[in-house]
Amino acid sequence: MSTTGDVSRSLLAHRVPDLGALELLLAVARHGSLGRAARELGITQPAASSRIRSMERQLGVTLLDRSPRGSRLTDAGALVTDWARRIVEAAEAFDAGAQALRARRDSRLRVAASMTIAEYLLPGWLIALRQERPGTAVSLLAGNSAAVAERLLRDEADLGFVEGLAVPPGLDGTVIGHDRLVVVAAPGHPWARRRAALPPAELAGTSLVLRERGSGTRQVLDSALAEYGGPAEPLLELASTTAVKAAAVSGAGPAVLSELAVTEELASRRLVRVPLEGVPLHRALRAVWPRGPRPTGPARDLLTLTRRHAG
């Protein structure tokens, strides 16, 4: 049901000329000619004449005296022109303010990323973004996948990156790449000398060096070993991929880590990959954002870059 305010606004919209018509009237006042005003605004003279007549009918007054020598404002037209100037100036101020807000939005980007992505993928993406948007200031909040979701839901980040089994509740997202987890151990560990693949039951029954609950790595491992009772009580539970890797290299115990994180250690034999029997440890890498419209501005550009560079 319409309110009194709705009706008043509707009537006002019918009584007040649009900005285009007011700008045309101001141009006629400046040039003293309907033709020159039309050229300034990039419209034809017949179109300009039709717009002025339409405005006169809408207001119920004559705005211009037309003659072969040009167009002159009537007394009523001069008064309407003064009012029109204030409206157009207010509209220009409104537009300038809106542009400033857009510029402020487009000059910063708040990114929240899970630890693996933050450590091993995001730096390259941000270097590429800087080449495309050198004026954009980027702030990075790193944490596990659950923390990334919380930051987005509290409007503390514009775009997030997680690795796990699904898009966190309350968010929308898209897959930008894939990753897999691998079992690794120091060269002196008995698993490093195995010839046969490791049975999943043995992996589940062994205390490992693991990421904390809430991380994408832990989510995938917990799900993969669910039918075997889940992972045993961790030997160590650490909050970063780098810390887990360092503990494994030191010989503290086997670990399950992203293949992205252990490439150098496997190549240098500081860690050995332990083959695993029949357990899928693949996971999707996702860009996520609060449920609703897709990201715009620098967040959209970074999302495009990740699709180009991830995988």
From TrEMBL:
Residues 290-311 are annotated as: Disordered. InterPro entries: LysR_HTH_N, LysR_subst-bd, WH-like_DNA-bd_sf, WH_DNA-bd_sf. Residues 17-74 form the HTH lysR-type domain. It holds the Pfam family HTH_1. Keywords: DNA-binding, Transcription, Transcription regulation. Coiled coil: none annotated. PROSITE patterns: HTH_LYSR. Belongs to the LysR transcriptional regulatory family. CDD domains: PBP2_CysL_like (cd08420). This is LysR family transcriptional regulator.
